[in-house]
Specification:
The chain is globular and about 65 Å long. Strand 6, helix 4 and strand 7 form a beta-alpha-beta unit. It is α/β, with parallel strands linked by helices. The chain has a six-stranded parallel β-sheet, with helices on both faces. Strands 6-7-8-9 form a four-stranded parallel β-sheet. The chain has a three-stranded mixed β-sheet with strand order 1-5-4, covered by helices on one side. It contains 14 helices and 15 strands.
């Protein structure tokens, strides 16, 4: 999204990336080899293979031809997606030789999605990744944490100076929000056999145990409201595969499996409420950017999605609490007020605005 809007701003934009990708089913995979192409937004993409031995350097993130690729691009600005890779040494060497080039970076690691086992918490992040991220520090203009917790992670785990760290939210693609929202809402509800009066909740992402989708399903059972429906978009991890059998017996819950970004957007537009009672995903910010009222699990320093009363927080693991939170909003004046506030709050999470901030504009 950043590259799309940087391109729309008139810049020449190149992405240098690994072979890591997602296949058509949303599963993690790798491309067969290095390549170059222009993406749908006209952004040039250079895909680089890992150096050998691949097993070692895919972990350390060291690539074949990175320096040559940067030299060929001759950038005025480098935006480093994360600071935890050993080829920061290559970037630093280039910056040392080209002092006019500006460096920005972001960070998506925190204490929930990273540094969770003993090796990661005590060696990988505080020793290895700190060593390589500190190499970038003298050249950084800003290092963004995409949540408040991820800002703290930069300071505590990598020892990046506080004056360089700033919060920059993830958000939603302005152009992906459909203009014909009423038509999409009507069509999706018709496809699912719902009426306009049915209250529709949407959730999604990579459905693992920490997403607490199973808690949301239990909350739906507790509510047992005839005109209440739930859409689940996303791939179940092996540990959650048991939910398939349960979901097949629940006509008010619509499990759709993996969905494209456009499909997820349309389902959120069709919904009355977004509900994410577990770990964070980019769907949090997307739902706020669309202007849908939402319920989120309360995590310390992950409350940036709350702007003006546009959402509410729950503990996440308590199905009764979650059921009460949803129940209070089903076709009530409280919901109407929350919907109005959510629509106002949405402008804070649009990538047309975020992309400018990302490079200091």
């Amino acid at each position: 999204m950043l590259t799309k809007y940087h391109k729309k701003m008139g810049h020449t934009v190149t992405v240098i990336a690994s072979l890591y990708t997602f296949n058509e089913n949303g599963k993690e995979s790798y491309l067969s080899g290095p390549s170059e192409y222009d993406d749908a937004n006209g952004v040039h993409v250079i895909r680089l293979a890992y150096k050998r031995p691949v097993k070692v350097f895919s972990i350390l993130r060291r690539f074949k031809g990175l320096r040559e690729s940067i030299e060929r691009v001759q950038p005025d600005i480098i935006f480093s997606h994360n600071v935890s890779y050993s080829d920061t040494t290559v970037v630093v060497d280039y910056l040392r030789c080209h002092p006019h080039v500006k460096l920005y970076a972001d960070n998506h690691a925190d204490y929930i999605n990273s540094a969770r086992n003993c090796l990661s918490r005590n060696i990988l992040h505080p020793i290895i990744w700190r060593h390589y991220s500190k190499k970038l520090e003298p050249y950084l203009i800003r290092c963004y944490g995409v949540t408040p917790m991820r800002c703290r992670f930069l300071k505590e785990m990598y020892h990046i100076k506080a004056g360089l760290v700033e919060f920059l939210p993830m958000g939603v693609d302005d152009e992906a929000i459909p203009d014909n929202r009423i038509v999409i809402r009507t069509n999706i509800r018709k496809k699912l056999g719902l009426t306009e009066d049915d209250f529709l909740v949407v959730t999604g992402g990579k459905i693992d145990r920490l997403k607490n989708t199973h808690v949301l399903i239990k909350a739906m059972d507790i509510l047992n409201v005839e005109h209440l429906h739930l859409i689940i978009c996303g791939t179940l991890t092996p540990e959650m595969d048991y939910l398939k059998t349960i979901l097949d017996s629940k006509p008010h819950i619509h499990y759709l499996g993996w969905c494209s970004a456009e499909e997820v957007m349309n389902y959120m537009v069709a919904a009355d409420l977004a509900c994410f009672p577990g770990t964070h995903s980019t769907l949090w910010e997307q739902s706020v950017g669309i202007g849908v009222p939402a319920i989120f699990k309360r995590w310390p320093e992950m409350e940036h999605v709350y702007v003006n009363g546009n959402c509410r927080f729950v503990k996440g693991e308590n199905a009764n609490e979650l059921a009460d939170a949803i129940g209070e909003l089903i076709n009530t004046n409280k919901y109407k007020e929350m919907l109005s506030l959510a629509q106002i709050a949405s402008t804070n999470f649009r990538y047309s605005v975020i992309a400018k901030r990302a490079i200091g504009l």
